[in-house]
Write a structure and sequence with these properties.
This protein is mostly helical. The protein has one domain. 73% of the residues lie in helices and 0% in strands. The protein contains nine helices and no strands. The chain is globular, with a radius of gyration of 20 Å. It starts with a helix and ends with a helix.
Length: 225
């Protein structure tokens, strides 16, 4: 891997870790968790997706355990988040901004890892999608919330990751430089997410008819009478 590309790749990885660490820490603080809970959600959000990706690729040990720098980043960001929690809570859009940046970066890096591992088109999209969303899903589950990718009213989250991963997989198969392809993917994912939030765009809701009675035995008894 070219040294310039290594620098870009490492820098984007660090920004992604910072973004998701802030997202996880602030979710824990909103839920009034203790210090351990804040650290746990920050770590889970930052490394959950990468851990799942590495297991799929077959990378043992996972990459975040080989680079102490990323662990120190999460510890530092978590500490700063607890110090400036009052300011951040007054500007809740900060969490959405960082979460979206992390979504774009980890979509790109996960897709690229799948591509270098020799996965087919669908495999690259899957690794990109899981790297970007698995950490957030674990964060929301630990915080007793419906995962963001399954909720309406928060913009196109999973859709942005899938479209970005699809775009990058296609670009990596062309002659475009990898660093430009990755940065374009990050911009695409972030743009789709921000635009969908601004204009309240969501996938159509699947209609579910309300049942006439929640008790089937009561319903059959009424019919027999």
């Amino acid at each position: 891997m070219h040294s310039y590309f290594e620098l870009i790749y490492s820098l984007m990885g660090a920004i992604g870790v910072v973004s998701f660490a802030i997202s996880g820490a602030m979710t824990a603080l909103k839920k009034k968790m203790d210090l351990f809970g804040v650290l746990l959600l920050a770590f889970v959000t930052s490394f959950g997706g990468g851990l799942l990706r590495d297991l799929i690729i077959g990378r043992i040990p996972p990459s975040f355990l080989e680079n102490t720098f990323y662990l120190l980043i999460v510890l530092s960001v978590t500490t700063l988040s607890t110090v400036f929690v009052s300011y951040i809570l007054k500007h809740m859009n900060i969490i959405t901004i960082f979460d979206t940046i992390g979504l774009g970066i980890f979509t790109a890096l996960g897709t690229y890892e799948g591509f270098t591992a020799g996965f087919n088109f669908a495999g690259c999209i899957l690794t990109g999608f899981l790297t970007a969303t698995a950490g957030g899903m674990l964060r929301d589950i630990f915080a007793a919330e419906i995962p963001a990718i399954l909720r309406r009213g928060i913009g196109l989250y999973a859709t942005a990751a899938i479209l970005g991963a699809t775009f990058l997989t296609w670009m990596l198969r062309t002659d475009l430089a990898n660093d430009w392809a990755i940065m374009l993917c990050v911009c695409l994912v972030a743009s789709i997410r921000f635009i969908s939030i601004k204009f309240n765009l969501d996938l159509p809701e699947v209609p579910y008819p309300a049942a006439p009675s929640a008790d089937p035995f009561k319903q059959s008894k009424e019919k027999s009478v």
